[in-house]
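Hi F.,

I've been meaning to write this up properly since the lab meeting, where we talked about keeping a consistent format for the predictions we share between groups. The idea is simple: the sequence comes first, exactly as it goes in, then the structure tokens exactly as they come out, then a line or two of notes. No screenshots and no reformatting. I'm using this chain as the first example so we have something concrete to point to.
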Amino acid sequence: MAKAKTVNDYDATSAKLQAAKTALNNVVFGQNDVIELAMIAILAGGHALIVGAPGLAKTKLATSLGTVLGLNEKRVQFTPDLMPADILGAEVLDEVNGKRAFRFIPGPVFCQLLMADEINRASPRTQSALLQSMQEHHVTVAGERHDLPQPFHVLATQNPIEQEGTYPLPEAQLDRFLVQVDISYPPLDAERRMLFATTGNEETQPVAVLTTADLMSAQKLTRDIPVGEQVTDAILKVVRAARPSAETSKMINDNVAWGPSPRAAQALMLCAKARAMLQGRLSPSVEDVIALLEPVFKHRMALNFSARADGVTVQSVIAHLAQTLA
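Output, unedited:
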């Protein structure tokens, strides 16, 4: 009876997630794969880095996710003069009833979904202010710990075209993002639909489908999904095959400067579970691992100089790794 109840819970949760995905597709046109990856990141309890040119609905996706998934969301526009206190908050000196005392004023990071717009425009000092909150879900100001709301997710955006006046994210912070989501131009029919939907007197607004409690329950169910030995072996095989060593292929040793860490294996496992949940399956498959290789690996690998000089891309290296699992 308990097992049947668990299966029913998975089915009901999967149906709600599908409804949430449909609601997002109604306001963000032609980006089905991007929506799925963003939802996978949140289902898995992680953060997502969204990379794309201006005007491709990166901000629209993030704000719509907050509404549809029942999350309290806030947005910060990252600029070169943004300071850590502008994100985390600061202590101010107050006087109440003739007594002076410090009072903490929370910053915008105290929300359930933080939209960090153009994160690479802020200085490294400000970027690093997000490190503790993304990893540990709390911040420390003036020696005092302040816990963040639960759940807590960061959706950061980057513009890959204009690099002047930007500060590339260090590897330590890139590794905090569960996935990197590349967003491209929509297909013709989606762009036509978008034109009519957004240039009239009324524009379709996102609607709430889940509550915070629903999402947290879905996140717990996602972690409870069992993973078979075949999938576990595939994850370990591909992660270890991506690191230059005496045991890896010539293609990897000739082109890769450094490969993914064990955190990449954890990310693959969690994302494979989340993809299975989102698609209504009770267990992930090797196909899930292959489909998630690029978003999980792309920001966790670096090519050496000779590879870049020869025109080798990270995508081509990941495609080579995917062939070893096919």
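Notes:
Residues 2-25 form the longest helix (24 residues).
The longest strand covers residues 89-96.

If this format works for you, I'll send the rest the same way.

G.
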